[in-house]
Amino acid sequence: MTLPFDMKFLDAGSLAELLELQNIIAANLPFPEIFMLHDEEYLRDVFSRDHSAIGVRVGEMLIAFSIIRIPGLAHDNLGRDINLPEEELGKVAHLQAAAVHPAYRGHGLQRKLTFAHLNVIEELGYEHACCTVSPKNPVSLGNYLSCGLAIEGLRPKMHGWWRFILHRNIRQANQLGIEQKRIAISDIAGHLDLLSKGFKGFRISPQCEGKQVQVFYAKF
Ligand SMILES: CC(C)(COP(=O)(O)OP(=O)(O)OC[C@H]1O[C@@H](n2cnc3c(N)ncnc32)[C@H](O)[C@@H]1OP(=O)(O)O)[C@@H](O)C(=O)NCCC(=O)NCCS
User: Which domains does the chain carry?
Assistant: First the structure.
């Protein structure tokens, strides 16, 4: 069934519905640590920048959103986590959050929202898109990888929760090397080892019941 999705930029007038949608999403997470909730003050700040929030509606109802943030030279600029040169940090944009109402998943909305925000990031003149994803969130990881981001780091972030650090250089296409490796998504030590050897994660295996998702790595 194709639903009539309507994708638009959101402004401060959508604050209350976005908070409500976040609450529904939070109440349905398999692990609380996979999704960081944003408070009202944070979201007000997001809305103060044009094009920072995109929402999807079915009829009047907000059912999905994506948020970007420009970190500037702040300490939490994700470019620092993947050793981007200092002079590149000002060109970084964060894909800060994306989520879909549990009743409307499986329509590729995270990918659509991410591609829309990658276009915004490029049009605004930023060159690096970065985001974080929990190793316990294979759906989101697969979606960001299929939007051209690659795993370039893995470290404990807020609350000590593990996060892959994903990055896409907006202006460069990735050229995969011939040598490829694959490891289980939960193999933290294995990821750290491959990343330390210069590999980047570029896709995951399809999810099959009872089987661990595998992450594929190559040198770019
Ligand atoms: C991650 C998320 C945004 C993906 O939503 P989406 O864009 O609708 O997902 P997709 O359309 O790519 O769905 C792909 C498949 O995974 C399934 N799926 C989607 N989310 C799922 C979930 N949380 N748990 C299990 N399966 C899920 C879909 O049903 C679909 O299966 P199908 O191909 O058999 O139909 C959504 O799961 C979500 O909001 N999760 C909670 C918040 C979150 O994790 N945000 C990302 C933080 S980095």
Answer: 5-218 (3.40.630.30)
Which of 105, 110, 205 for a ligand 1 pocket mutation test, highest count of atoms within 8 Å of Cβ? Answer: 105
CA of 18 to the centre of ligand 1 (A): 18
Q: Quote the pTM value.
A: 0.94
CA distance 21 to 27: 10
Q: Cβ(171)–Cβ(191) under 8 Å?
A: no
Nearest Cα residue to atom 8 of ligand 1: 105
CA 89 to ligand 1 center in whole angstroms: 30
Is any ligand 1 atom within 6 A of the Cβ of residue 56? no
pLDDT in tens, 94-150: 999 999 999 999 999 999 999 999 999 999 999 999 999 999 999 999 999 999 999
136 lines ligand 1 (CB under 6 A): no
Spacing, Cα 104 to ligand 1 middle (Å): 9
pLDDT of residue 83: 96
Segments in the chain below pLDDT 50 = none
